[in-house]
Design goal:
The chain has 182 residues and is mostly helical. The two termini are 34 Å apart. It has a 3-stranded antiparallel beta sheet. It contains 7 helices and 3 strands, in the order ααβααββααα. It has helices spanning 23-44, 52-62, 67-74, 78-90, 115-133, 138-159, 177-180; strands spanning 65-66, 94-99, 102-110. The longest helix is centred in the first third of the chain and has 22 residues, at 23-44.
């Protein structure tokens, strides 16, 4: 740092003072933002916005599902999913129709036309994986995946917000106090 930039907070490389107690959380925040931006660039070629591919992935794997179930599965705000579905429907990738078992409910399914999109999404995610993990050897990649799984488990436990996962017993002695407290 030069004397001219010493007093300039924009030019410092240190953590913001409010983040001093959470350098890992700050790193996650920065990485998540950059990961989403990179995903956006890759998905743009397929005509998608980030998050829409997650909706499509679920529909390709699950088949027709109620819109309410889809909202839970992708864990997004209902208005966000509705807007995504409107755009995906206009593009011919999804179809919505009344549920024959409950006319008040709406079924959502991927269209035949969306099958061409599947390979584009698959390629975008493969490229995103390579960009994200460039410079990490296979052992480091496995270790990062393992560690992120533990972090995800901690956050799921703390927030009780993980669709499709049962929450561990809060009296479990296997969980460390520091991992259970944010």
């Amino acid at each position: 740092m030069t004397p001219e930039t010493a007093a300039d907070p924009v030019c410092t490389e240190s953590l913001p003072t409010a983040a001093l107690g959470g350098p890992v959380s700050l790193a996650f925040s920065r990485v998540a933002r950059l990961h989403r931006m990179a995903a956006g660039k890759l998905l743009r070629g397929a005509g998608l916005y980030p998050g829409q591919e997650l909706v499509m992935m679920h529909l390709w794997d699950a088949g027709a599902v109620r819109q309410s179930e889809l909202i839970k599965a992708v864990d997004l705000d209902p208005s966000t999913v509705t807007k995504m579905l409107q755009r995906l429907e206009q593009a011919g990738h999804v179809r919505r129709r009344p549920d024959p078992g409950d006319r008040r409910a709406v079924l959502v399914e991927a269209t035949e036309e969306s099958c061409a999109l599947h390979s584009a999404v698959e390629a975008a995610w493969a490229n995103l994986e390579e960009y994200t993990l460039a410079g990490l050897d296979p052992d480091e990649r496995r270790e990062l995946t393992r560690l992120l799984g533990k972090v995800e488990e901690n956050l799921c436990f703390q927030t009780a917000e993980c669709p499709g996962r049962s929450q561990p017993d809060s009296t479990s002695s296997t969980r460390s106090t520091s991992a259970a407290v944010l």
